[in-house]
């Protein structure tokens, strides 16, 4: 979520919170000790405190509040935390038979905090883990996309026909159509691709 703010907005939030906190500490100090001081004396200390507090509050409260007030999700980014199950459909065509593979049962897990998002995907033969994630909201149409790059590690018994590789994928959520369905496409370094269709199970 934090990455969706522009840099100047992030800086403005941190600076504003630090100044307000410094003024607050100055007032408390004067009230308790009766000594006049200046906000500048507190700035370095306050910046550290504000950073810790902001992280703690955002991590602990953001999604709890967003689940109660869905408007927060549409204005920032939906809560995608959880297990998603469905299938992959590869576009690869067997050169010997001219046929495609049947849908591959798939489970996908998204772990999302205010500051980070990670995606893991499992099939019967391999495990993929995201290396980078980028959130792309389309607020006007209330559609939200997760782009991610990943590393795929097949089980050793399948290495003879499925090597380790890297890839890129995206997952789309249409807020108005179905908040518990993700569809998308993946592309691999092996020059293959396919479609993803999963639904949130928990």
UniProtKB/TrEMBL annotation:
<keyword id="KW-0812">Transmembrane</keyword>
<dbReference type="Pfam" id="PF18153">
    <property type="entry name" value="Cap15_CD_rec"/>
</dbReference>
<dbReference type="InterPro" id="IPR041208">
    <property type="entry name" value="Cap15"/>
</dbReference>
<feature type="transmembrane region" description="Helical">
    <location>
        <begin position="12"/>
        <end position="34"/>
    </location>
</feature>
<protein>
    <recommendedName>
        <fullName>CD-NTase-associated protein 15 domain-containing protein</fullName>
    </recommendedName>
</protein>
<keyword id="KW-0472">Membrane</keyword>
<feature type="transmembrane region" description="Helical">
    <location>
        <begin position="40"/>
        <end position="63"/>
    </location>
</feature>
<keyword id="KW-1133">Transmembrane helix</keyword>
<feature type="domain" description="CD-NTase-associated protein 15">
    <location>
        <begin position="76"/>
        <end position="200"/>
    </location>
</feature>
């Amino acid at each position: 979520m934090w990455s969706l703010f522009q840099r100047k907005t992030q800086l403005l939030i941190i600076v504003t919170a630090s100044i307000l906190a410094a003024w607050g500490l100055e007032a408390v100090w004067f009230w308790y000790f009766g000594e006049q001081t200046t906000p500048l004396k507190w700035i370095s200390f306050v910046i550290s405190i504000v950073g810790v507090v902001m992280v703690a509050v955002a991590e602990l409260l953001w999604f709890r509040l967003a689940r109660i007030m869905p408007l927060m999700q549409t204005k920032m980014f939906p809560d995608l935390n959880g297990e998603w199950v469905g299938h992959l459909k590869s576009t690869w065509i067997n050169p010997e038979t001219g046929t495609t593979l049947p849908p591959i049962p798939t489970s996908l897990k998204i772990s999302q905090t205010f500051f980070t998002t990670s995606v893991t995907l499992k099939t019967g033969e391999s495990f993929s883990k995201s290396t980078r994630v980028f959130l792309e909201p389309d607020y006007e149409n209330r559609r939200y996309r997760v782009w991610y790059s990943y590393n795929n590690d097949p089980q050793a018994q399948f290495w003879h026909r499925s090597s380790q590789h890297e890839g890129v994928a995206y997952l789309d959520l249409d807020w108005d159509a179905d908040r518990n369905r993700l569809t998308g496409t993946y592309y691999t370094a092996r020059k293959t691709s396919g479609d993803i269709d999963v639904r949130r199970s928990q």
